């Protein structure tokens, strides 16, 4: 079967690097083709008809021409620009964090409708709600779910016995829970409170509408963030770069107020 | 090693030219043979000019623009308004702003832009220098002229967050439709900002 010379797809821009004088190479996340790369010509010039339609964290409908090496974007129309994300530094840092995760985990040219929808919905939640902590954790857990790294939270990953309602442990390398009886065998595991375990179990399985009903206090939020982030870092075998900025924004800056 | 019939100095120059942006193997060859035929003085001048950009150039002690003296020409100019700082990403961004002849204040070059996905954070660009400069006092306006894209906006918002003093006005270059552009191709972000910032004429 011969391939068509051009194809249409919706996509969210997750990464951009400069190319030559005024062009950019975009990394796009699409429902049917997963992660793809394409050239956006002239987008660094002020008068570019693609311009803002292919800005980072923008959901657009694209017409792409197959190139010999890289494909080339010929037309673009914004579907959702997630404006509130772009107008707020905190939301922006969160959106970029999600984009980095998608870029790091996603495979090229593999259909990924569910993860695309998860990513799109997460950006929408970050833009339009104030439940960012829940939105981010839910995104992380669901993302690893879809990608086949779902952590085992029902029984001990070492002895396979059911988990009791007590303090347990989480091991990134075992990919799940370790019971207090086995914890001495896995030194790199981290203490996990009962509440954290319950919330993780719920978020792993429920719809977002239910996920947001949970009341998460600061301490619990911090614990969940640390556990999941460690797990992601273990899976990726590298630092997630944008977390540094995410954390930097949590502290109030030393202000200039002379 | 690959067998070559071309003299080594020629191959070397072709390779060096080939590393420059926008120059492919053919252009590199053409440039090399052009220089080979040019008079020696011409080649010498070029070599000198190339060497010159690395020797004797430094960052201005005030604005961090590239200069060949302690402070750059703009910062030395007594006719300029010292109470205004215009913040740009790269030294090359000063040129188009100067061409407008509309701005008579000073600059600050960040030499980069916050880009969390690439691991470039606030500490990796010349922000501390800016903070120290503002803390010295005497500044009443900071103009954020970073590029109107996601990273430029992030950097601008980050700087705006740092400056809480009511004495200092923080402004951002207006965003909207480019001159010579076409409304049909404008994106939502640009258009909504253009609408928000509309002016009576």
Write structural notes for this entry.
- The complex is a heterodimer of chains A (258) and B (201).
- By secondary structure, chain A is an alpha+beta fold.
- Chain A has 2 domains: 6-82, Nucleic acid-binding proteins (OB fold (Dihydrolipoamide Acetyltransferase, E2P), Beta Barrel), CATH 2.40.50; 129-248, no CATH class.
- Chain A is built from 8 helices and 8 strands.
- Chain A has helices spanning 83-86, 89-105, 113-128, 132-147, 194-205, 208-211, 218-236, 243-248, and strands at residues 6-19, 23-30, 34-40, 59-65, 71-80, 168-171, 176-178, 190-192.
- Chain A is globular and about 65 Å long.
- Chain A starts with 5 loop residues before the first strand and ends in a 10-residue tail after the last helix.
- Chain B is α/β, with parallel strands linked by helices.
- Chain B has 2 domains: 8-52, Helicase, Ruva Protein, domain 3 (Orthogonal Bundle), CATH 1.10.8.420; 79-195, 3-Layer(aba) Sandwich (Dna Topoisomerase Vi A Subunit, Chain: A, domain 2), CATH 3.40.1360.
- Chain B has helices at 8-18, 25-37, 40-52, 73-76, 94-99, 127-135, 150-162, 188-196, and strands at residues 58-59, 66-67, 81-88, 105-109, 141-144, 169-172.
- In chain B, the strands form 2 sheets. Chain B has a 4-stranded parallel β-sheet with strand order 4-3-5-6, with helices on one face.
- In chain B, helix 1 crosses helix 2.
- The N and C termini of chain B lie far apart (70 Å).
- Chain A binds chain B through residues 15, 20-21, 46-47, 49, 51-53, 55-58, 78, 81, 83, 86, 88-89, 92-93, 96-97, 99-100, 103, 239, 241-242, 244-246, 248, 253-258, and chain B through 21-22, 114, 116-119, 121-122, 131, 134-135, 137, 149-151, 153-154, 157-158, 161-168, 178, 180-182, 185-190, 192.
What structural keywords apply?
heterodimer, A: 258 residues, alpha+beta, OB fold (Dihydrolipoamide Acetyltransferase, E2P), 2 domains, five-stranded mixed beta barrel, three-stranded antiparallel β-sheet, 8 helices, 36% helix, 22% strand, B: alpha/beta, Helicase, Ruva Protein, domain 3, Dna Topoisomerase Vi A Subunit, Chain: A, domain 2, two-stranded antiparallel ribbon
């Amino acid at each position: 079967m011969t391939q068509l010379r051009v194809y249409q797809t919706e996509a969210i821009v997750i990464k951009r690097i400069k190319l030559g004088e005024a062009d950019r190479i975009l990394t796009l996340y699409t429902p049917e083709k997963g992660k793809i790369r394409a050239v956006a010509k002239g987008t660094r010039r002020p008068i570019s008809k693609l311009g803002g339609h292919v800005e980072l964290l923008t959901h657009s409908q694209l017409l792409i021409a197959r190139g010999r090496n890289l494909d080339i974007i010929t037309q673009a129309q914004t579907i959702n620009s997630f404006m509130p994300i772009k107008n707020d530094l905190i939301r922006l840092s969160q959106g970029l964090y999600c984009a980095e995760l998608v870029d790091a985990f996603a495979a090229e040219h593999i259909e990924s409708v569910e993860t695309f929808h998860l990513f799109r919905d997460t950006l929408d939640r970050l833009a339009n709600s104030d439940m960012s902590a829940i939105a981010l954790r839910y995104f992380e857990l669901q993302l690893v779910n879809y990608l086949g790294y779902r952590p085992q939270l029902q029984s001990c990953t070492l002895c396979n016995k059911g988990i009791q309602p007590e303090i347990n442990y989480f091991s990134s390398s075992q990919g799940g829970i370790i019971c207090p009886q086995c914890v001495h065998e896995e030194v790199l595991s981290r203490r996990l409170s009962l509440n954290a375990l319950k919330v993780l179990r719920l978020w792993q399985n429920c719809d977002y509408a239910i996920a947001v009903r949970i009341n998460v206090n600061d301490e619990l939020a911090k614990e969940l963030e640390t556990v999941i982030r460690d797990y992601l870092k273990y899976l990726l075998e590298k630092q997630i770069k944008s977390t540094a900025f995410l954390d930097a924004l949590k502290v109030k800056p030393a202000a200039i107020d002379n | 090693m690959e067998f070559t019939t071309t003299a080594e100095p020629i191959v070397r120059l072709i390779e060096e030219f080939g590393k420059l942006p926008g120059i492919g193997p053919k252009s590199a060859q053409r440039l090399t043979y052009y220089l080979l035929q040019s008079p020696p003085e011409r080649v010498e001048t070029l070599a000198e000019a190339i060497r010159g950009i690395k020797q004797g150039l430094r960052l201005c002690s005030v604005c961090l623009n590239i200069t060949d003296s302690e402070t750059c020409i703009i910062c030395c100019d007594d006719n300029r308004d010292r109470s205004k700082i215009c913040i740009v990403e790269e030294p090359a961004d000063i040129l188009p702003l100067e061409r407008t002849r509309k701005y008579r204040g000073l600059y600050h070059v960040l030499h980069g832009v916050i880009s969390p996905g690439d691991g470039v954070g606030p500490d990796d660009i010349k922000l501390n220098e800016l903070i120290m400069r503002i803390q010295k006092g005497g500044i009443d306006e900071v103009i954020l002229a970073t590029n109107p894209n996601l990273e430029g906006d992030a950097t601008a918002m980050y700087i705006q967050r740092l400056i809480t003093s009511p004495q200092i006005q923080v402004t951002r270059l207006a965003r909207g439709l480019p001159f010579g552009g076409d409304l049909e191709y404008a994106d939502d972000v640009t258009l909504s900002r253009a609408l928000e910032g509309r002016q009576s004429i």
